[in-house]
Amino acid sequence: MISQLIINNIEKSVNSLFHEMGLNYNEDLKISVEQPSHLEHGDYSTNVAMQLAKVLRKAPIQIADMLKNKLEEEGEMEGLVYKIEVAPPGFINMSIDWNQWVKRDFKFPLNNGEKVVIEHTSINPNKSAHIGHLRNSCIGDSLVRLLKRAGYKVEVHNYIDDLGNQLADTVVGILNIPYKKEHSRFGDFCWDIYSTVNKQYEKNPPLLEQRTNVLHSLEEGIENLSWVGLLVADRIVREHIEEMNEFDIHYDLLVWESNIVREGFWTAAFNLLKKTKQFHQETSGKLEGCWVLKQPTTVAEDTESEHSMDKVLVRSNGILTYTAKDIAYHLWKFGLLEKDFMYKRFSEGLWTTNMNGTDASFGQADIVINVIDHRQEYPQAMVKQALEILGYTKQAEKLRHVSYGVVSLSPAAAMELGLDTTDGKASYAMSGRQGIGIKISDLLDLMEGIIENKRSDKSGLSSRTIAAASIRYYLLRFSLLTEVVFDIQQATEVTGNTGVYLMYSHARAVSILSKAEVDLYSEQVVPNEINHMDKAEYALLRHIATWQDTLYAASNELSPHKICTYAHELATLFNNFYAACPIIKADNDKKAFRLWLTLKFKETIGDALTVLGLPSPDRM
Predict the structure, then answer these.
(1) How far is CA 36 from CA 40, 42, 92, 158, 543, in A?
(2) Cβ 177 vs Cβ 238: under 8 Å
(3) Which entry of 6, 123, 411, 545 is 20 to 30 Å from 243 by CA?
(4) Which helix (H) or strand (E) holds 542?
(5) Cα angle at 204 between 199 and 208, to 5 degrees?
(6) How do 367-371 and 115-119 pair as beta strands?
(7) Are 215 and 249 in contact (CB under 8 A)?
């Protein structure tokens, strides 16, 4: 990777400069390089001289000159970097010799095979999934692809909360609310039942007592009610998995919450926690009878706070909180419980925990990554705290929460669903309890119809495949913590920063290479010499050169949107190049170089599309 090579050389030069001046080098100094936005400023630039101004008590421009001399003296970048310049107020700009670059093999630094367990999707199995759930799944699946590309061994979990209030509500509704309406899917029927029963709770409070009865029955798992809950959850989960398959999202293991409780995983975790001072049963006050994980002094002790019940692991009525089960689950993920599940095949390529199953190899993670929206930050911190309390500090450090902003509805989308938007809000929250939201299946059908109507040539990818890729890209391109204000018109666009644009650009490159009879799968001879590049050629090559750096940064930061940003800019630069520079009709030397550049683009955009989980079509 070019940027890492440059950073290493800058670090050596800074260290040498400090040594000359009799100072200790601060290894915490974060040295970064980036590509200047203006091509005339070179290919890479660093502001390290400005960072050092206060420490060295010199003007940044002076420090930059000193470091420039050091870099030229060291000579380790000689050949690759042919020119180093200093620009006010202290930037160091470097220019690459592209003849040297094409001859070098820059290898992506692969991980040594550490095992990562990634948990994502984890939708309550009580109704059809909506677009907010899909954002979680798209982020999680792209992280799976990204970390596999980076050399990790990745295992994908989908946690099924089959003991929660949401499933209990749907069961109460099915058994108590007369409802008659035609539905093609069970999950859509349950969508309506779930919102209906939540409205009925307000009119008929005794129904809430039935929810408590269902919750107890689900945990015990030995009577009519619990079997009804199991059957509902199983059917809903199968529909969820079918939906995710359409977006090329897959899992290795379904972990059912009921197995954690009924097979003694929580009991094992409970026995470990009881040995610590921080876990105890309250004997008085509002939490009397509850088993509580005591908070550190940095966390407010106000029992009226919105998070007060999150530190309760076992309620006074004996019902476990979600956090309790999650702690047990994470102890198992890291291989810290002397227990394991039994497993059965759920569908092709997918296993599930099942007490009547067989042995299999899951868990035992080196790193655990949970994709859960930002509202669950506190419970995730509780799991980490429990690991630390139990002395598993190494595992606590390796537990990462990938937090993201929720999906809400634009005023136009809300109005289309029949919501009152006269209050003029910028966005409207989805609510399963109120039946407000856009189902994944409905959006996919809508998008497929729009694409089908816009296509003149339908011989490439199916409209449904293109629709799924478009929706997936739309949900990935925002930075993680951004609230996605979902607008149907924006989501169904096929031009601009869209998945369709990226896939079309790949198909265009394949078409050009095919017309030129370039073998896409053979070793291509690199250009003998790169001279006098046109601006569009130079801009494209320069951006291609940063692909591995982008991939490395995205995998370290767990940020799929960085790949989206890179890929969109890459496609834009390629289409600019295509418009400005004749390829097949160019003179021989130019033609060879431009075909090679087109091939490099095709390989790079294809790699990016694969990481994002989008097809790399030969034709659209």
Answers:
(1) 8, 7, 11, 42, 11
(2) no
(3) 411
(4) helix 535-544
(5) 85
(6) parallel
(7) no
The answer to whether 162 and 256 are in contact (CB under 8 A) is yes
d(CA 476, CA 412): 21
Q: What is the DSSP secondary-structure string of 483-537?
A: -EEE-HHHHT--SSSSHHHHHHHHHHHHHHHHHTT--TTSPPPPPS---S--HHH
CA distances from 407 to 26, 329, 489 (A): 42, 27, 15
When comparing pLDDT for 8 and 350, which is higher?
350
For residue 254 the two structure tokens come to: 């379904």
Sheet of 312-314: strand order equals 279-281, 291-293, 312-314
Residues in the chain, how many? 620
Mean pLDDT, residues 459-487: 94
Q: Give the pLDDT band (50/70/90) at residue 27.
A: low
What's the rounded Cα separation, in Å, for the pair 102 and 33?
21
Strands 350-353 and 253-256: parallel
pLDDT band for position 500 (cuts 50, 70, 90): very high
- The confidence score (pLDDT) of residue 152 equals 96
Q: What whole-number distance in Å separates Cα of residue 244 and Cα of residue 251?
A: 10
**What token pair was written down for 153?**
């061994």
Asked if 534 and 578 touch (Cβ cutoff 8 Å), the reply is: no
> What is the SS3 assignment for 558?
coil
Which position has the token pair 């799944």?
137
Whose CA is closest to 370, among 326, 408, 339?
326
CA distance 103 to 558: 31
Contact 489, 152 (CB under 8 A): no
- Is the Cβ–Cβ distance between 367 and 117 less than 8 Å? yes
- Residues 384 and 394: their CA atoms lie apart, in Å, by 11
The better pLDDT of the pair 297, 254 is held by: 254
HSE (side-chain half, CA atoms, 13 Å) at 158: 23
Give per-residue pLDDT as tens, 326-338: 999 999 999 999 9
Asked if 370 and 380 count as a contact pair (C-beta separation under 8 A), the reply is: yes
Q: Which residues are 479's β-sheet partners?
A: none
Where does the pLDDT of residue 488 fall: very low under 50, low under 70, confident under 90, or very high at 90 and above?
Answer: confident
The pLDDT value given to residue 76: 64
Q: 334 Cβ partners below 8 Å, 6+ apart?
A: 363, 364, 365, 368, 387, 392, 395, 398
Tell me which residue of 265, 242, 264, 448 sits closest to 350, measured CA to CA.
242
Q: What are phi and psi of 182, to 5 degrees?
A: -75, 130
Q: Taking 60 as the threshold, does the pLDDT of residue 298 lie above it?
A: no
Helix (H) or strand (E) holding 369: strand 367-371
